[in-house]
Structures are given as structure tokens and as C-alpha cells.
TrEMBL record:
<keyword id="KW-0456">Lyase</keyword>
<dbReference type="InterPro" id="IPR023045">
    <property type="entry name" value="MoaC"/>
</dbReference>
<dbReference type="InterPro" id="IPR002820">
    <property type="entry name" value="Mopterin_CF_biosynth-C_dom"/>
</dbReference>
<feature type="binding site">
    <location>
        <begin position="75"/>
        <end position="77"/>
    </location>
    <ligand>
        <name>substrate</name>
    </ligand>
</feature>
<protein>
    <recommendedName>
        <fullName>Cyclic pyranopterin monophosphate synthase</fullName>
        <ecNumber>4.6.1.17</ecNumber>
    </recommendedName>
</protein>
<dbReference type="Pfam" id="PF01967">
    <property type="entry name" value="MoaC"/>
</dbReference>
<comment type="function">
    <text>Catalyzes the conversion of (8S)-3',8-cyclo-7,8-dihydroguanosine 5'-triphosphate to cyclic pyranopterin monophosphate (cPMP).</text>
</comment>
<feature type="domain" description="Molybdopterin cofactor biosynthesis C (MoaC)">
    <location>
        <begin position="15"/>
        <end position="148"/>
    </location>
</feature>
<comment type="similarity">
    <text>Belongs to the MoaC family.</text>
</comment>
<dbReference type="InterPro" id="IPR036522">
    <property type="entry name" value="MoaC_sf"/>
</dbReference>
<feature type="binding site">
    <location>
        <begin position="111"/>
        <end position="112"/>
    </location>
    <ligand>
        <name>substrate</name>
    </ligand>
</feature>
<feature type="active site">
    <location>
        <position position="126"/>
    </location>
</feature>
<comment type="pathway">
    <text>Cofactor biosynthesis; molybdopterin biosynthesis.</text>
</comment>
<dbReference type="InterPro" id="IPR050105">
    <property type="entry name" value="MoCo_biosynth_MoaA/MoaC"/>
</dbReference>
<keyword id="KW-0501">Molybdenum cofactor biosynthesis</keyword>
<dbReference type="InterPro" id="IPR047594">
    <property type="entry name" value="MoaC_bact/euk"/>
</dbReference>
<comment type="subunit">
    <text>Homohexamer; trimer of dimers.</text>
</comment>
């Protein structure tokens, strides 16, 4: 029997063999926030930071990171993603980043969505640090996933 674990029979780390799993449509959505001073927030939303359009750059960075998750996270499968979206929403003193990844495959895309959100947030920090070095990235988490043996899952709030 093929156990879905990252440990082999000797307790050594390995990449899980998913070859026997059926292909299903799989999606995952993750989010996080970056809090900052009002002046930095306004400049970032207006595309007026010294390094250029922070939101556009963060969107591209998040998409690129999702595609490279298998290279960044040990034992993650390299996946041919079919879709990645990055959305931004203003909150009172923050920008909320929502990342969604999807494919038809044998393994889920939760790590890809979380990586996309994380790198988009880090890119916003990098783009805006000249305006506010005290920005805080917080709350990176999985919001929802679908597909595979475990089916649907949603965060509890």
C-alpha cells in the first residue's frame, strides 16, 4: 500500500508518490495582509511609490512564485499550474492579498496559493519600504481548497 507521507519505511524524508491518485480539478485560495501607515497605503494604492507600481509588481511576483513553489518548498511536487490569480483589497490600514491557484492534477495546490500570497506581500513590503519600514505582514493562511480525496475545505471564519 502506498502511504501518503513524506517519510519512507526507514523514516527518511521523501517526496510522496502520487502516481496512483486520480486527477481531479483542484483549487486553493490563500490570503494575507500588509499593514502600514496611511501615507504609504495611499501611495501604494495610487501606484506612486519610488520603485513604481507596487500592486502590478506584486501580482507578477506572486504568480511567478506560485509557479516555482516546487523549487522553494522542500518535498513539494513541481506542478504545471493552469491558473493563478492575485487580488488586492484595501482595508482600513492594510492591503489584503488574496491568491488563488488551480489545476487538474493528482496533488493539491494549497502551497502554491500560500506561496503566491506570501511573495506578493513580501514584494509590497520591498516596493514600499522607502515609505514605511514598519509595515507588518500578517495572517497568511489558507482560506479554502477543493478537489482530491479530502474534497472541499473552508477556513472557519
Amino acid at each position: 500500500m502506498n502511504r501518503l507521507t513524506h517519510l519512507d519505511e526507514n523514516g527518511a524524508a521523501r517526496m510522496v508518490d502520487v502516481s496512483a491518485k486520480p486527477e481531479t480539478e483542484r483549487t486553493a485560495t490563500a490570503e494575507g495582509r500588509i499593514r502600514m501607515r496611511t501615507d504609504a497605503l495611499e501611495a501604494m494604492l495610487a501606484g506612486d511609490v519610488p520603485k513604481g507600481d507596487a500592486l502590478a509588481t506584486a501580482r507578477i511576483a506572486g504568480i511567478m512564485a506560485a509557479k516555482k513553489t516546487g523549487e522553494l518548498i522542500p518535498l513539494c511536487h513541481p506542478l504545471g499550474l493552469e491558473s493563478v490569480t492575485i487580488e488586492f483589497e484595501r482595508e482600513s490600514d492594510a492591503i489584503r492579498v488574496t491568491a488563488k491557484a488551480g489545476l487538474i492534477g493528482r496533488t493539491g495546490v494549497e502551497m502554491e496559493a500560500m506561496t503566491a500570497a506570501s511573495v506578493a506581500l513580501l514584494t509590497l513590503y520591498d516596493m514600499g519600504k522607502a515609505l514605511d519600514r514598519g509595515m507588518v505582514i500578517e495572517g497568511v493562511r489558507l482560506l479554502a481548497k477543493s478537489g482530491g480525496k479530502s474534497g472541499e475545505w473552508r477556513a472557519a471564519d
